[in-house]
Structures are given as structure tokens and as C-alpha cells.
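Researcher: First entry.
Model:
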Amino acid sequence: MKPTLLILAAGMGSRYGGLKQMDELGPSGESIIDYSIYDAIQAGFGKVVFVVRESFLADFKKRFEPKLKGKIKTEYVLQELFNLPNDFMPPEGREKPWGTGHAVLMAKNVITTPFAVINADDFYGNQSYKQAVDFINNNPEEEQYAMIGYALKNTLSKHGTVSRAVCDVDENNKLIELIERTKIGYEGEDIVFYEDDKKTVLTGEESVSMNFWVLKPTFFKHLEDGFVEFLKEQGNELKSEFYFNVLAGELAQKKLAETNVIPTTAQWFGVTYQEDKPLVQISLKDLHKSGLYPENLWD
């Protein structure tokens, strides 16, 4: 049975200033999602599940269904503020859903195969999808997961700071701990982050999570249990978020699951800020010119 690709596309892109999931960046008007699905099909994925918001579901289907029909199975699930387990209710005044963990959980009833999770607005490179399928084919154990690890220096923006989950791994590249670092960025030629006003300089070689994970259906039970605990502790906060990669890190720490960190040399880029857009457009154009992608992905 072919694996599933789960695309987290419900975020509105507050720093970017628009619905970047459908922004036309490729030379023939392709979005980054187009490249992700194209690479996944080439690697052997058999189904794609989109996590979206109801407010743009119709536009999303209108854009993607015609080009994907006959190429890969598609399903859609909704991440909405009130879609919570155990009769939990959001606090008055909360406007946004509950983060990537909440988003992944929305797909629990439509995914029955091993699956990869990606962000809609990140370009991961075709090699990473092949590595994900290779891992799935060679690691059938239900509690064995994987993360595609990118070098920190290859994931930064010149136009502002970013948040990254930095990996601590053992000698066999098994995940020991994920440490969420916020506001990582350039200070001159250095890559730094601040914590409690203390500056730390990083090498740039640190392996970080870009939310490309390979998971099994057993993960949904861990995720739901973790989300319930999160809602008990932080469910009354207006801006708290539940991250699936943080939960995966905790499972590794507690030895409830094993996560392989798979280093990749695949090219990564994203559009965190509007200022990132021209560089992404140039990078995609160059990939087409090199022959890695056809002139138009879907023709």
C-alpha cells in the first residue's frame, strides 16, 4: 500500500501577508504545493490529504482538483477552532486554531497508511520524498518514525528571524530531544538566537526540523492523548499552540517511540516573508532550466 502525503495548508501566513499556499511562484504559475505533490508522486506516494480551512476550501479544490485528477488520490480535512476532542470549547476571544498538532490530528480518520507530514509553504526537494519512502519501505515497525533533517544554515531567511526545532541526536542519528528555538537569525555573518537576553551563536550545521516527518497511524493515538493534556493545561489561553513535532520529541525522550533523523542534502527554501518571494521564484526557475522539472509540471 502506497504511503500518504499530509499537507498542512490551513495557516493564513500572517507574516507573509496573504494565502501563500496558493501563491504562484513557478515559471508556469505553480505554487510550492504543486512541487511537493509532483515530487511525492515521483517518489511513490499514492494519496494526498490537505488540511485546510473551510473559508478557502472551495478555491483550494478549484485550483488543485483538475490538475491532480487521475494522478493521485485526494482528500480534504478541516482545521477549525471549534473542532476539539472531549467536548472542549475554545476560550472567548480566541481566533486561530491550535497549531500543527491540532492540524495533523484532523486527518486521523482518513489516513490508514504510513504517512509523511509537510508544510504547504516549504519546498523540500525531491530527494527528501525518496528518502521518506525508503524509510517507510525498510522500517515496518509501528512505533518507528523519522524526521528529514535539514542543516540550519540552509533554512534561514535574510529578511527576518525564524523559529526552528533543533535536534539533539545520538551516534546512530536517533532523536534524543527537540529544542524549539525562536527568533533565530543573522547578526552580521553569525547565526544567533536569544534566550533570556543571552545571545547564543550557532554553527549553522545543526540539524533542524522543517516539519517533514514520516509517521505511522499509531501516532494519532499519541497525538490525541497529548492534545487532551495540552487543552487541560493551556486550553484557556488565547494564543497557545500544540506542535506535533514537539510531541514526537517527547515520545523519543520517553522511549515510547523511536525517531530516526535522516540527514538530507535536498534543497530547501520557503516563503516566510514577502521579501523571500523573488529568491524562491529565481530558485524554481533555475530548477526548471536544469531539467529537474518539466516546463509545466502538469502538462
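Researcher: Second entry.
Model:
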Amino acid sequence: MTDRIAAFREKTLKEGLDAFLVYSDVNRNYLSRFTGTSGAVLLTPKGRLFVTDSRYTLQAQRQVKHAKLHLQTLSLLVELAGLLKKSGAKRIGFEAGHMTVAQHQWLLKQLPGAKLLPTRGLVESLRLVKDSEEREAMRAAARITDRAIHHILSFIRPGVAERDLASEMEHFMRRQGAEGPSFETIVASGWRSALPHGVAGAKRVEKGDFIVIDFGCRLNGYCSDMTRTVCVGPPSALQKKVYGIVQRAQAAGLKAIKAGRTAGDVDAACRRLISKAGYGRRFGHGTGHGVGQEVHEDPRVGPKAPDVLKAGMAITVEPGIYLDGKFGVRIEDLTFVTETGHENLYRTTKDLIVV
């Protein structure tokens, strides 16, 4: 945590800022480990403050170790304005994507003579490369995810509703220690499997269906994300063919991961294989995305994405083919970029699972 704050302070100084207000939930947690729902990290020329209200006194005392705790008596924004005025800061940075126009205008009136300077990505750029603590949290979340996909296989049968499968998976992951799902679980069967984000609905599984299961859990504040496609009964020739193409494309994308390459290189490896097979127009989304405290964060893994991969980044590889009115296939793994390739966080097979 000390290293994170020092790195962030260095970034603010390079931007010519003498104070910075971290207001967003995820970035506040990254810089403080505070998991409550109200508070702010405030860097000033006089030091580091963590500001919250009396509801979170005990929680903040236990979780926040590298900033001085300041308990607010007024509303959070009013308290922050008073602290900034008292600090004498003149160039104050804030997260442009996490402050409303009304909040910005009000702060300007409270801080005459100071400049409020919008920034983008200062904390997020630090979050790109996961440290050892973050990587272990994500490995632990991935282990629960592996267990969850194996658990749900015995529940898949004709007649079961998609939403019942999703509910069982989420309850299982909680019983395994997860804080909850990292996003709304996708269980899409039959024709609905051709919907890339077909969240679980009332449709009941039928014999011959492909089922796209896209899910993950949150553990110790970090997310996992996995997709597998399961067949209910023996697959048709077309289902086998399309699944095989996606499986090979996903393997090609994984092979393309290496520090120094770009996120676009990973996307191109998958997309090239799918296009050569004649299904390029059936793969409309990006190949993957970063994962961490949020299930979707930078870097984005899409066509011509310029982000250079660095060791310690966490990205997904999830190509798919979607045949409208028939079925869809997607296979997804979560990986850490390494200097020589990648570390796959999952052990679950990518061969077609038939139940």
C-alpha cells in the first residue's frame, strides 16, 4: 500500500498538482483498502487524509493504515472543500469521470484562487499491473470459479430454467467464500446462446442446446471471469465445427500473449483464424478486456488496440461465433501476462463438455 501511494504521489507531482481528491469507490479502495461505501482519499501538501463519516469509524480504523483518518461532521463534499481550503493547495486534481458538473461548480465557488484540474486514468494506470497481493486474490477467485463450473454440470438437464442454473452457481460461489458474483451471470441456451450478453432468463434448457455460461465471482475485492459452452446431448456436425473454430481461435489468442506485444495482437490472432474460417462477421465484439477490482477495466483487447502488454497485467481471451436463430459459442480464460507468455488462471478444460 505504501508503494501504491508513493507511486500515485509521484504521478500527481509530474502533473504539477499539489493536491488530489480520489472520490470513486474503486480507486479509493485501491489506495486505502477501505471497503465502505462513503469516503475519499485526499492528498494535500500537508499529507494524506482519509475522510469518512462516523458510520465507518471502526471500519476505517481497521482498514486504513497509510493515511490519517479524518471523521467528517458535515457532508463529505463540504468537508473536503474545507480541508482543501485549509491545506492551501492551489492546483487540485480530481477524477474527471467521477465528479458531477454540479459538484465541480460548487467546489470552484468554495475554493477561490485554486484551480480544479480534471484528470483521467492516473489511478487506473497504476491498477493496470497487478502486484503480488492482487494476483493471489485473483488466483483465489479463479479457483472458486473453476469449482463452480464443475458443480453446475450435474444440474444441467432438459427442462431446467436458465435463471435457476445461474442462481445455483451464484449461491455455490458464495458458499465457497466469494463475496458475490463479479457481474450478472450469463446462462444462455439454444437460440439465446447467440446473444453475446444473454443474461439468464426464464427459457428452459432443451435437448441439443448449446449453453453459453459466462460468470465470475468477487473475492477480497477482486474479480474472476470465465466462459464455457456446454452441449446438452450429442452435438450436431455444425455445432462441432463452430466449437472447434472458436477453440482454436482462443488457443491462438492465448499463444499471442507476451509482454511487449499489444492487446491488438491478441485480438488479431483470434480474429484472423475466425475470419479465415468464414465466420468473421459472426464475431462482433472485442477479444477481451482487463480484469481486477472491476470485471471490465483496461486494457481493452480489441481490433488494433494499441495498449502494450506488461508483465502482471490481467486480461481475458474470449472469442466467439454467434449464429442468429441457431446457437452461439464463446470460450474465455483469465490470464496474467508474463515476460515469456501468460499464466492461465483456470484448469477447466476447453474441450467441448457434453452433459
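Model: Note on the second entry: The radius of gyration is 23 Å.
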